[in-house]
Amino acid sequence: MKVKSLILTTALVLAASLGFHPTQALASQPVSIESLLNEMTDRDAVARFPEPDFRLKEFSSYDRRSKTPADPKGWFGNYDFNIGEKARNFVRIEEKDGRKEWVLMDHQGPGVVVRSWMPFGKVPEGVMIRFYLDGSKTPALEGNACALLNGSGLIPYPFAHPSLKSAVSFFPIPFAKSCKVTLTATPPAFYYILTFRAYEQGAEVKTFTLEDFHAAQATLEKVGHTLLHPRSSGAQSPVGFTAKLGTKEEKSVDLPAGTAAVRELSVKLGSYAEASVTRTTVLKMEFDGHETVWCPVGDFFGTGIGLHPFQEWYRTVAEDGTMTCRWVMPYQTGGKISIVNLGKQPVDVELKAATGAWKWDDRSMFFHANWRGQYPVPTLPRSDWNYVTLKGRGVYVGDTLTVMNPAPADWWGEGDAKVWVDGESFPSLFGTGTEDYYGYSWGGGGTDFYEHPFHAQPRAHIYDKLHPKPVDAPRSTQGYSTETRTRALDGIAFGRTLQFDMEIAHQTKQKCDMGYGVGTYWYGFADTTSNRGANPVEVRNVPPLPAKPKN
Questions:
Q1: Mean pLDDT of the chain
Q2: Which DSSP string corresponds to 326-364?
Q3: Where are the alpha helices (DSSP H) in 2-68?
Q4: What percent of the chain lies above the pLDDT cut of 90?
Q5: DSSP SS3 for 31
Q6: Residue 46: helix, strand or coil by DSSP?
Q7: What angle do CA 445, 193, 187 make, to 5 degrees?
Q8: How far is the C-alpha of 254 from the C-alpha of 266, rounded, in Å?
Q9: Are 213 and 140 in contact (CB under 8 A)?
């Protein structure tokens, strides 16, 4: 074993010296707990089309009446939960050792569970979640359903964590042949989303075992620390500019010529006193002659409208106004980064971009960021609001949604995320609510700031990191809320098409007009296209804050 390890280490060092990234060298290695943990913090890997290829899929408690958009009543149904013996939104019930087990997921073939979400208050000890792998009658992993997924059990923070009345786990659970997940002694009401990679048959996957989990503790600690202390890797010789831009003025900087990758990009505006400045100041990027980014800076960096500090794996918005992203953005010949001011007042801008080495191969992809905005968006009749539709081949890696809700007492986010991949007849990803997609639960009860390496709520109502919600504050989701989610192991790979819709579903029984704006992030090849482009008119159409209710 020592000889094999020495040979592998020598090979990796030699590969690095020749310009190959370790991801390429290890592409033929089996998928395992160790490889997946290392991939989680490998930003270069995200910029290459996955090998082995996979499609992201989901088992969830979505309303089973939702069968086709041709039937609006069923399609927009909101019975996406389970209640005790009347539970119906799951696979089946099995009898095992004199107890009932609700089967939440049952997949045949190699894969990896990459995200588990369930909303909980206090969960009794008897509510157990069990992962049965490769047809075994004995669970490979089990525990209290809340503790196992919220970081207080076997799986540590930040891989599993509590998130505003939810338990969310990003810890990867690989399986070579099959995966069945069950729940016992169901709580009074439960929802669930289990997201997994489905590999092609023949993919080599090393099935999760507790022995391998304990053997990976050093890697677990290293990756966890890295996720919580993000830094750019390989960034060199920054370029940039400082400028005062008048209305409709634009300033650009050329990137170093040749094959390279942007590894860190930061933008700082002179003042955020007018919150709309993060919407009307737009970031543009070109790589190899193609414009791949057109997005307001607030939606690109995740702060939404206004400055709302937070930190996650790919982006940091600092209290001093510096907004930084760490997406790896490769190019072959050259690129350009621009800022354009579409607001009514001059804007002071400081931009810095640092590049680093990149070995271009046939899996290398370009980074894209698109934007869509609309105001007003009617709440009735219910509808699916398209984030983005892509044609070609690539990987969807995240989004930032900013919503303006005019209703003081009603929750705006009952709508489900629906993602269609490669022309399928039914979405392979069908969620249970907008807040569930972004990692928290119970609607307006989650009106508060939170942050995590892969999702955050930088602003909710009037609260953010600098202005936390008081314990005795009344529930309200009126005004602006910003939700953001980025993806590492749960990137959505597509071979032909991807359509991402978010259902508009408001609790109010009266028609009201909302404001929606979303930045979407994805990687694609040169011929992959998006239905989103420059939209300067809508950028200026900033939804007004609703008037405060009279006492």
A1: 92
A2: ---EEESS-EEEEEEE-SSS-EEEEEEEEEE-----TTB
A3: 2-17, 22-25, 33-40, 43-46
A4: 82
A5: strand
A6: helix
A7: 65
A8: 15
A9: no
Q: In this predicted model, what pLDDT tens digit does every residue of 314-340 receive, in sequence order? A: 999 999 999 999 999 999 999 999 999
**Cβ contact 232:355 at 8 Å:** no
Task: For residue 259, give both structure tokens.
Answer: 């094959």
Residue 194 Cα distances to 61, 105, 118, 415, 512, angstroms = 9, 7, 9, 18, 33
pLDDT at 85: 63
Taking residues 72-92, report their average pLDDT.
Answer: 87
Residue by residue, DSSP assigns 166-206 as EEEE---EEESSEEEEEEES--SSB--EEEEEEEPTT--B-
Q: Which residues pair with 94 in a beta bridge?
A: 101
| Cα three-residue angle 423-492-128, rounded to 5 degrees | 110
pLDDT confidence of residue 72: 96
- Token readout for 183 is 């729940």
Q: Tens of pLDDT along 475-522?
A: 889 999 999 999 999 999 999 999 999 999 999 888 899 999 999 999
Q: Is the pLDDT of residue 236 over 80?
A: yes
pLDDT single digits (tens) 385-433: 999 999 999 999 999 999 999 988 789 999 999 999 999 999 999 999 9
Residue 133 CA to residue 548 CA, distance in Å, equals 54
- Strands 310-311 and 160-162 come out as unpaired
Structural domains present in the chain:
54-228 (2.60.120.1390), 238-539 (2.60.120.1390)
For residues 49 and 392, the answer to whether their CB atoms sit within 8 Å is no
CA distance 130 to 139: 6
Residues 6+ apart with CB under 8 A from 175: 110, 111, 112, 113, 133, 134, 205, 207, 208
Region 464-474: what's the mean pLDDT? 92
- Whether residue 299 contacts residue 279, with contact meaning beta carbons closer than 8 Å, is answered with yes
C-alpha dihedral sign at 135, 136, 140, 144: positive
Helix ranges restricted to H, 351-445: 434-437
The count of other CB atoms within 10 Å of the CB of residue 248 is 10
Q: What is the pLDDT of residue 442?
A: 86
Extended strands (E) in 40-159: 54-60, 92-96, 99-108, 111-119, 128-133, 141-144
Sign (positive or negative) of CA dihedral 455, 461, 467, 473: negative
As a whole number, mean pLDDT of residues 141-168 equals 94
Q: What is the pTM of this model?
A: 0.93
Tokens of 196: 């997994």
